[in-house]
Amino acid sequence: MSESRGRRAWLRTLGLGALGAPLLARAPFLGAVPSAEAQGAIRRIVFFTSGNESIERSWWLPPGVSEASGTSSPLEALHPIMSSLEPFRERLLVLGGAVSPGGGHPADKAILTGHRLGEDGGRKFNRGTSFDQFLADRLDVRALVFPGSGVSFRGTQSPATAWRAHEAFRAYFGEGGGGGGAEEAARARDASLLDGLAGQLGQLRGRIPAADLYKLEAHLDGIRDLERRLEQGVVSCDGIAPPDPDAEARGASFRETMDARAEVLTQALACNATRVAVFPMGGTFGFSGEPMEERGVTTGVHDTAHAYAVDSDNAPRVVAEREICERLVYEEYARLLARLDAVPEGSGTLLDHTLVVFVKWMGYAHSDDDLLWMVAGGQGATEVRTGRYLELATVVGAAAAARGGRRRDHRGPSSNGILAGLAGLMGERVESFGEDLYDGSPMDLS
Hints:
Oligomer: single chain
CATH class of the largest domain: Alpha Beta
Shape: globular
Strand order of the largest sheet: 2-14-3-13-12-1-9-6
């Protein structure tokens, strides 16, 4: 049983009565680590995923870092293609060279499960539960998954439920609506309930064994934290205006869709409606249409990546269009980081208490190797040491020739170890994650 489940069961034995029931129904913090600063653990994790392959490492390797395997280098600069992430450079951990359990487009079904793909009559399928769902179960929360990623699974051949913005809103906040005076009244009601609940818990101090007092203090810390946020009024957890339920159905623009999903995600994280989420930018073939056309690219990411991979002449137009694709992905990642960083929480921000993990499930030329991972945020936990680049790969003796005459010659450890390391940063220690064929022991990300 996880610590969160243990505290929840313990709370039920205290006989608190019905005073806090209306609030507790909307306050998952009582079943989770309640105070990031008090507990020294990261509260939340978001996987920002992007389909199609990464560009080769010369386009993302930070300048001046060591490529010696296992070396940690200060992240003193980012590649120009990542300029949008410069405001967050000191809050980034960049990991280069990991290997996925799968390659090619179906690798979206392998990257977070940690297992090789199953196959039935030529059809590839996932095996096992994906890390986001595994972690959500351990933390006793429901993961928030938006459509498009194809990385989240409850079990073998069992995709997790994915919600569009308005669907996610209803799932995590009910029908919502209201605002104005109703919102103020709801905030005052919640503050009153919190005061009463804190008083009831405080009266129990003399009846609880000393060994269990830390559980009581954990709950009180959670209540005080929520009280502070109610007083600040920074993020509303009641009376929230729902997204337009027809926007995505009628073909909302890329920007409208991403912004609506990001808004629901931010609210869900800030209100502790969930602690685990998957936020995709496009599906297994990437994205196309509006964001590309605005930059003068008439094809989607998939076709652009293929054109680049087979172009041995480095035609300026092909290279330029491929660069635009990658810049767009990094810009969208930076946009999400900025949104989370704009929400105050405790002595920091929502981003300080959230790990935002950047992952693509294919390496250059649709390979399974030399993957780029990034971890942003988490400054609310002393274990996370950002502002650095960690080289995972070694240069293999016989370089694999990629399409277009470029070469792939870096191969590192399994990305399963990254996932196991992230579990530890979330306060859920595991001995390993994923298939035994790969080394899934926790990678030291501190």
